[in-house]
């Protein structure tokens, strides 16, 4: 029997990832904006400041394009470039991360299942429909449409109310320490951090579990124990990877 009464997941880069030809998408954005291409997608990503802003994705991308243009000594309208990128992107082009469907099945066997995403419904709905999540989970909370997003506790509280479970009995799985793990902690959830690199460490955040793939979530739920990370707040939590981004 699982130690959790319910399980909830972040969406982007936890359950799914974009399935675009990123280089082609990048070039199409320049074509749409009528600008001669410069730079490469990876260079742009490295210049973005933290996670996307659900309230101003064009401004978020535009800041990255402005930095990129300065590096390449180009004078362009970075907001127009960002708007073109958003216009050609297809939010329905997503695919499950390896192990995600097994994690969802294991979560459903443990109890009700939720998804909590910081994006608004008008952006995230296409992903939900493409993945068929309406048939796989019980509740989806779009924090981008709420007064407060992760890491605030409000969207987590909305989730537990909809699932009719206690926060302390709920596991939240996400890839962001600053948003998913911190938010789960603030709301009284247990947390599982999906890290991108086995060399990454959680620092002071202290997630309850650390996993390197979604496939490990099914094992964690099925076994009831054995994939635990160090106790939250312990010295080990700041320096040691979990057993189980």
TrEMBL record:
Record flagged with keyword Magnesium: yes
Listed Pfam families: Hydrolase
InterPro entries with a match to the protein in the record: HAD-like_hydrolase (IPR051400), HAD-like_sf (IPR036412), HAD-SF_hydro_IA (IPR006439), HAD_sf (IPR023214)
GO MF, one annotated term: hydrolase activity
Any single GO BP term: riboflavin biosynthetic process
Domain of life: Archaea
Keywords for this protein: Hydrolase, Magnesium
Chain segments carrying region Disordered: 223-245
Gene3D superfamilies for this protein: HAD superfamily/HAD-like, Haloacid dehalogenase hydrolase-like domain
KW Magnesium (keyword) present: yes
Cofactor dependency: Mg(2+)
Family, as annotated: Belongs to the HAD-like hydrolase superfamily.
NCBIfam families the record matches: HAD-SF-IA-v1
Protein name: Haloacid dehalogenase-like hydrolase
Organism: Halorubrum coriense DSM 10284
Lineage: Archaea, Methanobacteriati, Methanobacteriota, Stenosarchaea group, Halobacteria
